[in-house]
């Protein structure tokens, strides 16, 4: 099936779900078994869509999985294209160097005496080193950065100097990033070589901490009721969250505030920011509503 856009991926997901569902609004593994040779293959296919592990697949889960697969394939194609272009340019550079070396060898064999040839080409080499020495050094370091360090591929979400961006295109001497507001940022690879780069795609499932300052006189029972409310929310969204919110009293400020850390564990990394934003919004709204109902300030 040729999928070349998000809309086509969404249509394919809806078509597959409607063909498999029968009269239900969810799928089970039994719906997959007739289309595979073995039950083991059916289980593997079902597990790809059942991300929350609850034993059924909703239309949203199938749609998200197929769209994510399309995006991964698109990123892989872009990465292969960029690497192919880099290798092609490197090949041209090596061809030029080979031609120069062959010309020197032929001159030494068929032309002047070896000593005279070495003096002539040595002078020329010294002149070239002053002109192109810095460029060649930077190019060599960039190639080490791209092929040995290899911190990212096209399509990866990365954090550079505290800014989250998507890798749009990788070149020999520079990398083009896309910011969240749509701006294109072109950064020299020689500069990126000395920076810390966080790659979200290659990261394991991530977590975050929400720091809250509660009134010093807040009863302990109300804090535990708040924790229970938040745990109930996490149980309602097993596709996004790992059950159980971290709840720890971190500090007491000036006998006036209770500093409480609320830790959220996600089931995936933040390469796809949609589930994280959806889950965080629901968590913050639940926290707000619970604080109002429990009269916690």
UniProtKB/TrEMBL annotation:
EF-hand domain: residues covered: 37-72
An example Gene Ontology CC term for this record: membrane
PROSITE patterns xref list: EF_HAND_1, EF_HAND_2
Keyword presence, Zinc-finger: no
Transmembrane segments: 93-110, 116-136
InterPro entries: EF-hand-dom_pair, EF_Hand_1_Ca_BS, EF_hand_dom, LSM_dom_sf, MscS_beta-dom_sf, MscS_channel_2nd
Signal peptide per UniProt: none
Keywords from the named record: Calcium, Membrane, Transmembrane, Transmembrane helix
Compartments in which it is found: Membrane
GO biological process: intracellular calcium ion homeostasis
GO molecular function: calcium channel activity; calcium ion binding
Protein's name in the database: Mechanosensitive ion channel-domain-containing protein
Organism listed in the record: Dimargaris cristalligena
